[in-house]
Amino acid sequence: MTAAGTSRRQFITGSLLFSAAFAGYHAWGRRPWAEPPPSGELPGPQGTTLVAAFAVMLEDDAAAARAAAELDASLDADQLEQLGLALKVLEFAPAGPLTSTRFSRMDRARQTEVIRAWEASRLGVRRQIAATLRQAARFIHFSQPSTWAAMGYDGPWVGK
Amino acid sequence: MRTLKVQDVIVGSGAAGGVLAHRLSRAGRSVALVEEGPEVSKADFTQREDQMYALLHRDAGGQATVDGGVAVLQGRCLGGSTTVNMGDCVPITDGVIDHWRQHFGWGDWGGISNADIHAAAAAVQADMGAGPIPEDMVNKANDLLRQGAGSLGMAGEILHHNRVGCIGAGYCTIGCAYDAKRGTLVAHIPAAREAGCELLCDALVDRVILDGSRAVGVEGPGFRVDAERVFLCAGAIHTCGILHRSGHSSDAVGANLSLQPQAPLVAIFPEEVRFFRGVPQSYAVVEDLTSDADHGLGGFTLEGVSTGPALASSMIPGTMAELIALMSRYAHMAASLCLVPDRPGGRVVWGDRPRPTIKYTPSDDHQRRLRAAIKAASRCYLAAGAERVIGPAAGCPEMRSEADLAAIDTMSMRSSDLPMISAHPQGSCRMAPDAFNSVVDMDFRVRGVDGVWLCDASIFPTTASTHTMVPVMSMAHLLAQQVLS
Ligand SMILES: Cc1cc2nc3c(=O)[nH]c(=O)nc-3n(C[C@H](O)[C@H](O)[C@H](O)COP(=O)(O)OP(=O)(O)OC[C@H]3O[C@@H](n4cnc5c(N)ncnc54)[C@H](O)[C@@H]3O)c2cc1C
Ligand code: SF4
User: Fold this and answer.
1) Is the CB of B81 under 6 A from ligand 1?
2) Quick check: ipTM above 0.95?
3) Which sequence spans correspond to the domains of chain A?
């Protein structure tokens, strides 16, 4: 098999993210894993939250949209379920349960404040979500050859 | 539905499974080697992080503890973790073996002496062509660590490895495109196949098939293998999952997990270092590493390491502008892993989801040693001329002189602030004579079921070595000897 034929699952997983945050949450009634879960995609609203969060992490809207699409396409159903749940928390309670403004409807400056606050939050769940989104966005972005020259990285040797 | 009938079915093709398949099939037994991950070869290894983490690593490198604090890296491909590891060869020490004998009931282990275990280690290292890393393969990043340690009077050593014909590309953890690194993918599995071993890849074993209390094979989506003997070698996290799905209800399954977490530390030098080229890990500071019968492995070790630009960027906190400024010095970076052997206090819990929950909290003692290790590594880099050492935890300032190192004493050790890596999960299905606290008896047999043997990193009572590949392979070699006799 070839690398190109592989699903491009990226630097993020269900276990990595959210089992702690949602300890009580399970896929009700599902029997122990018999088959690899199929891939899917995030529902539209959560996709919007993801792009907005990535735009804060990467400070570049186009790169954020690309990275979000790539992540979305690469996760399996279990991972998407967990990521979707985390994005809902970010979308609907960005600054605590009493906030009325949704994350994706804030301006960029406010979104950035929220992400910074989550990164330094006393709540482990928030720190974890923020750190994981940042890692995923940056892993995807900096694996692109267009970013390498600025780092002095001359890329793979195979094929040269 | 693909069906096979063999004498021995081996689940997992990593350090243990690859060696077992080699030994059993070459002894003339009919063997099937079943691997969840893809069949890969050097032709697949593109040296691109985005493609290779996805192809070769469990969850693309994202498997982690439940609080996200420790990334638990494992291979998920033909050759298992030996396809993505650093190739260092460090056998179990007498201190550790004696610790198990005295404190975990291994006693005389049915007559298997320390010399027998060392002979097993020698045999598997011979398979891989292992030996000391030659001086001309120590890259600049590792040499800087050595220079710093040397000028501070710290003890260190050149590591042993399993590379033959290495050209120093530096991509060992995303597959060696030159077959220079001789994990089971190169050293064992091809010879096993030549001897008739059947290989099933992309084949996730869901469970062991039981007839009463006797195992008669394994099955997964789209396949079934009937066998007289079942060998579970799926690694310290996923062997527990197979036992769970097979209805094994002992509380000992998943308990006593060690992760041996390592904290990465990055230093920036005025001159180019290009740590991403050459053998990534060739030198280790072993000044404070201890190993004795009373305590097992303790202290810490510092080892050079390298990483590609994507993984490096993803681990650096701060704004994008800060990150870009820092990554513009990527070619000037050197990095090390502060490796701190731990006590077995974690747990792998499998429920109804396709991924486990990995629970792990570093002990106070572990955190104390980790701070000491980070401080020692920072000191080495500054002594070697680094212009600065990047604070390893969020909120920890950059360190430019000895005076700045005080920041390490107070830096946050919260899981979300201090990213750590485990490449050596072990101990979750302990082998011991005590039936209550172990999953496996001293003959590698899973308790409570006939016909199932378990051999992988999960059987160790405590952390086996600073590097677990040779210890795991040694156990597989001993098991093969036992089965074949
Ligand atoms: C990045 C990295 C660097 C490392 N560096 C070193 C080093 O330099 N030196 C060293 O000594 N050690 C190193 N290690 C550790 C070492 O490689 C492992 O400890 C060792 O390979 C463990 O052997 P194992 O047989 O227990 O599991 P693995 O080698 O992980 O093999 C387990 C195999 O089982 C398969 N599997 C899992 N579940 C199933 C299932 N349900 N059905 C079928 N197959 C399944 C997996 O896909 C995998 O291929 C490193 C590990 C990593 C990840
Ligand atoms: S450094 Fe050597 S072993 Fe590692 S990938 Fe390059 S050639 Fe292979």
Assistant:
1) yes
2) no
3) 8-143
